[in-house]
Amino acid sequence: MKITIDGKEIEQVTEFCYLGSLISSDAKCYKEIKKRIAMGKEAFTKRKELLKGRLNRDIKKRMVKVLIWSVTLYGAETWTMRKEDIKRIEAFDMWIWRRTERISWTEHRTNEEVLKKVKEKRSLMDIIRTRQKNWIGHILRSNSLQREIMEGRMERKRGRVRPR
Question: How far apart are the C-alpha atoms of 85 and 91, rounded to whole Å?
Fold first, then answer.
């Protein structure tokens, strides 16, 4: 595809980093999701007080939601997720709760037992879905190029062949 603006042709790339998010030409986000989960795990390991401190469980949960999830979910509004990505995100969610409660995977505790102990439910995917719905509503209410792209109203010359 050739795009020209003011007579200058725009260079075509397969992926680029925009505002800290990895954008790819095929609209698949598995690399971005893996990167964000790794950043969330790194942010968690930097917070030693979540593991060592004798903090109240509610304070630990609030710290996780503010300090770790905000890093992990940056840009999640635009993610297109596959089943593997959803599994990876849910596994990260459980990894966080197991680590805060110091539950080893060798203890063979089910996810439901861990969630019951933490008094939480799996909410990372719910948060992502809510953010995506809010974002799409924001885009559709505005008068912008993104809205035109989402609604499919790009002006172009139609070819003579049948579209794919």
Answer: 10
